[in-house]
Amino acid sequence: MTIRLTMRVNGEPCAADDVWEGESLLYVLRERLGLPGSKNACEQGECGSCTVLMGGEVVCACLVGAGQAEGADIVTVEGLGDGEQLATIQQTFVDSGAVQCGFCTPGLLITAFDLLARDPDPTDATIREALAGNLCRCTGYEKILDAVRLAATRQSSSR
Amino acid sequence: MSVSTEVRNRTAGGVGDSPVRPDGMFKVTGQFAYSSDLYMDGMLWGTTLRSPHPRARIRSIDIGAALKLAGVSAVLTHDDVPGERVYGLEIADQPVLAYGEVRYQGEPVAIVAADHPETARRAAALIVVDYEVVEPVTDPREAVGHPYWKPVHDQPGQRTAMSRDKAPVHPEGNIVRHQPVRFGAPDTATADVVVRGDYEVGMQDQAFLGPESGLAVPDDDGGVDLYVATQWLHVDRRQLAGALALPEEKIRLTLAGVGGAFGAREDLSMQVHACMLALRTGRPVKMVYSREESFFGHVHRHPALMRYEHGADRDGRLIYVRAHILLDGGAYTSSTPAVVGNAATLGVGPYVIPNVAVDAWGVYTNNPPCGAMRGFGAVQAAFAYESQMDRLAAAVGVSPLEIRIRNAMSEGSVLPTGQVIDSPAPVAELMRRLEAMPLPPPLSEDLRGMPGGVSNTTHGEGVRRGVGYAIGIKNVGFSEGFDDFSTARVRIELVGDEPSVLVHTAAVEVGQGLVTVQAQIARSELGVERVTVAAADTQVGSGGSTSASRQTYVTGGAVRAACESVRVALFERAAERYGPGDYRLVGGTVESTVDGMVGDIASLLLEGPVERTVEWRHRPTQPVDEATGRGDAHVQWAFCAHRAVVDVDVELGLIRVVELAAVQDVGRAMNPDAVLGQIHGGSAQGLGLAVMEEVQLIDGKLRNPSFTDYLIPTIMDMPPMRVEVLELADPHAPYGLRGVGEPPTISSTPAIVAAVRAASGVDLRRVPIRPEHLVLPAARPGSDSGIAPGTPAHSTQRP
Ligand code: FES
Ligand code: FES
Which residue's alpha carbon is at the smallest distance from atom 4 of ligand 2? Predict the structure, then answer.
């Protein structure tokens, strides 16, 4: 059995046909909508590499059934910037050296973006707690912390 | 070399800077194409059927039902392998698809291509394999005691083009390699103070995040294009050519985005399978492993059983070390011979020891195959020798720092292989710098900083603090006589009106920043800021493996050499134009040492581009003697030391690493930010081995092939780091640099364990530490007996 799925992704209405009901939101984004930015490191809710915003909430796209996403408003890493300019958190990940292989990066960016929207001046302990669901195997997290701190500073000085 | 020094100082983004990495922008916007992101119209999805048994004979395979499923295009078994049925790095013994027998759980048996990944998986489930289950060999001690008892292989593997000519690689029974090292008179040496210990290292997984994946596209010429995440394109291609029975030029590999590697991509995974399916169906085939399959789809770090005896005088000066190191290589050879070589030659650590007897074995069992992982044989030995140094310190009554400083090797010291350390070896200085670093504040009041963290298991009661130190030594580059080289093509031309450089190598970027450093070298050498690094592929000669901390050294060396060759050609043009003279390239201009600036580089390029391709080798190394381990086996050594501070809840056995401090000599920090990134990330993997990471096996079967059950450090587990970097140039290396990637993984594990011992008072002999090891004496492995290999049987004759 297949379904037709309609969603808003990064502000654009979009639809996918012939979606098998067992597919995840992650599969639909990556394989049917041409948005492979969200990653697939575990597909069982443990690594956070697939993190997207769904209706403003941080979710693991690999754990969301395609049908559950019907009508939802989704933001992926491809939608963080405005097309011309990177979001602050994207720029600080590059500037701080928080990106090595980068496989964890899209999920971390969404999670950190959400954190800074809720708490513009987080303590280190708060950053660590917020990012605890996002695994990174390359960086040891030091420069990821730097990137989030730097984004908080840059965002507060531009306000 | 004053020329390049001066240029280097004047060209932004050159050697010693930390320019923004060129792939960073693509990675933060989601546009960077990893091997699992590839898509092509009309592509099929491939999947693999794997053995559920660690050991079984295959009576029959019935693919009929699978083939009939709608949407399935191909179902292939060993009968369909076009060429060689086995492959391997140094020894070809691993079947492309199992025939006759499966030797580990997860061994590939059949492959399927279908129009949807779920269809492919369902078809694989319809394949009927009739197995006759055989009792597996799962204890590596059996192999050493009786190498021909219950052989895992009924015939030795075949040497390959990568086999080191004279390296002692003689698969015999279940022993892949036995390497002794003898120095001084270890049999007769005696000492006032003797400490003995048995140690055990569990099986660690590289756990890169980007799963094994790639896209194979059949070509009209009967060949195939493969886009894949790997560590060494050319060695993949050589193995593919054998298995597919195609000439190498018909197999073109292009590097797709790599989501981490750490050794796990050195052996083939889906490469041959995807190409077989693509060639059979005539359509592009994509394969992506799930996380569970990834645990079965790549080699792991060798688990080790080790017995050490250290003898010293009353001041703690080492007189002898005797050691047995037993490494479980699992079902196939992979890189076990080289791992054994490292464990043997580096097995006593960075110390001066007059008498040494080390024996290292790598053996076959029916456990999962083990091979390369960051630290490669040096990690296992370091856990044992550093644990021993702490026990020796306690026995003679000096501090852990002092015992290491008293015995530290330095430039000019002789390794137990007889090789002289002919570059800086600042072992004592690394320890002293750790000692000088301030300690972190006492126990955190924030729950999130306590052992158990947000699980709210303690408010400080039962929590003890401990501090531990360790240092490690690692060889850089391929050792033991391996012909280790890289190839670089460098082209300079006008793009618009500006001089622009293109660097092309086949060397693999896995996240460490190789693309950045190649561009930095070209900028410094040619005085041109606009540098592009082409995608790595097999259109240029081999770059060698992204492993052994070697790429900045060897491919960096090749890029520099190619740039030098380009420079010579440009100077010839300058001489024609401006007359004979001594020229140099500075910040986009041509300068004469006599007349100063005479023109710009762009004007030299009006008559056309200059392109040079250079193959570059580091100085040769020697194989080691089979009986004594003597030989100048290594090209370079790298040193890193750690101090760990931990809080341990001694009632619950929970550990919190409070801080990790590291000091590493990198020779020259080519890119200081990337150097820090390597030290941070490597230290985190060592932390994982110390306190949480283990592939757990029962009777050869994996119990935890998922990120739910195989734990890697999260941002809550990884403490803040304090890092100091030393730059003591190695006169033999380009720019004086030293490989950086592996050393931090080696010393962080023993430093953390030492700190946990100090906090808890428990004599820990095994990593990873489990809570029960701390709180239940009965659950504690290894006193001084029981786990180490016995003396190997003298009879290695086939009974
Ligand atoms: S891929 Fe979704 S949590 Fe790992
Ligand atoms: S940068 Fe590789 S996993 Fe985070």
Answer: A136
Distance, CA of B463 to CA of B204 (rounded, Å): 28
Give domain B5-32+485-617's CATH number out of 1.10.10.10, 3.40.50.2000, 3.30.365.10, 1.10.3720.10.
3.30.365.10
How far is residue B63's CA from residue B125's CA, in Å, rounded to a whole number?
A: 10
For domain A88-158, give its CATH number from 3.40.50.800, 1.10.150.120, 1.10.340.30, 3.30.950.10: 1.10.150.120
H/E element, B428: helix B427-436
Share of chain B above pLDDT 90, in %: 88
pLDDT tens for B175-211 read 999 999 999 999 999 999 999 999 999 999 999 999 9
* Topology of the domain covering A2-78: Ubiquitin-like (UB roll) (3.10.20)
The mean per-residue pLDDT over the stretch B265-273 comes to 98
Consecutive sets of 10 residues in chain A, 159 residues long: mean pLDDT of each? Answer: 93 95 95 97 97 98 97 98 93 98 98 98 96 98 98 90
H-helix segments, B245-377: 271-281, 291-297, 336-345
Rounded to 5 degrees, φ, ψ at B51 are: -70, 135
Query: Which residue has tokens 């592509």?
Result: B43
Q: How far is B32 from chain A (nearest CA, A)?
A: 8
Question: How close, in Å, is residue B40 to chain A by CA atoms?
Answer: 11
**Strands lying side by side in the sheet with B485-495:** B531-533, B498-505, B485-495, B610-617
Spatial contact of B490 and B555, defined as CB atoms under 8 Å apart: no
Atom in ligand 2 nearest the alpha carbon of residue A41:
3
Query: Going by CATH, does the domain composed of B35-136+211-258+265-297 fall within 3.30.420.40?
Result: no
C-alpha span between B521 and B552 (Å, rounded): 10
| Residues within a 6 A CB radius of ligand 1 | A 40-43, 45-50, 60, 62
Starting at the earlier edge strand, list the strands of the sheet with B721-726. B463-475, B637-649, B654-665, B721-726
- In angstroms, the CA B450 to CA B761 distance is 19
In whole angstroms, give the CA distance from residue B64 to residue B67.
5
The tokens of B284 are what?
């592009």
Q: What is the pLDDT of residue B598?
A: 87
Whether residues B20 and A95 touch (CB distance < 8 A) is answered with yes
pLDDT for residue A159: 66
Question: Rounded distance, CA B392 to CA B315, Å?
Answer: 10
Q: Residue B29: its chain A contacts at CB < 8 A? A: 37, 77-78, 80-81, 86, 90
For B134-192, strand residue ranges (E) read 158-159, 175-183
Using DSSP, state whether A3 is helix, strand or coil.
Answer: strand
Q: Could you state, in order of their start, the residue ranges of all structural domains in chain B?
A: 5-32+485-617, 35-136+211-258+265-297, 300-479+623-779
Per-residue pLDDT of B14-71, as tens digits, reads: 999 999 999 999 999 999 999 999 999 999 999 999 999 999 999 999 999 999 999 9
- What ipTM did this prediction achieve? 0.98
Q: Please give the helix or strand (H or E) that residue B133 lies within, else none.
A: strand B128-133
The pLDDT tens digits of the residues spanning B145-173 come to: 777 777 788 777 777 776 654 434 445 68
The reported pTM is 0.96
| Residues of chain B positioned with their CB less than 8 A from the CB of A132 | 714-716
Cβ contacts of B680 on chain A, cutoff 8 Å = 139-143
Contact B683 A76 (CB under 8 A): no
> Using one digit for the tens of pLDDT, what is the confidence trace for B730-768?
999 999 999 999 999 999 999 999 999 999 999 999 999
Could you say which DSSP state residue B155 is in? S
Rounded distance, CA B633 to CA B612, Å? 31
